[in-house]
Design brief:
47% helix; 94 residues; alpha+beta
């Protein structure tokens, strides 16, 4: 039996990627918890923290999943990039 997959969305309407839903859920939960905790966080800090916290238990390339799921959450209007931040920061969308 094949595992359930999810097709991610992209904020600029580009083609998303098909990823395993169980991996998507782990990364989504991690991103949302971390953004809630910090209110706003730079993408690079989020990526560093995810690699530190998840790489021992996660069965995939953490950084690749972080970027794919982050873009999906932006496209779904759950998080947003904060305009004019460098390096770019993200926060939960109001």
């Amino acid at each position: 039996m094949s595992e359930e997959k999810i097709l991610t969305l992209h904020p600029q309407g580009k083609k998303g990627v098909n990823i395993l839903k169980r991996r998507y859920d782990v990364i989504k939960e991690y991103i949302l918890q971390t953004v809630k905790e910090y209110t706003e966080i730079s993408y690079s800090k989020l990526d560093d923290m995810a690699n530190r916290d998840l790489s021992k238990t996660f069965d995939g390339k953490v950084s690749w999943y972080i970027v794919s799921v982050k873009l999906d959450l932006e496209a779904r209007g759950i998080i947003e990039r904060i305009p004019k931040t460098s390096p770019h920061k993200i926060r939960l969308k109001e």
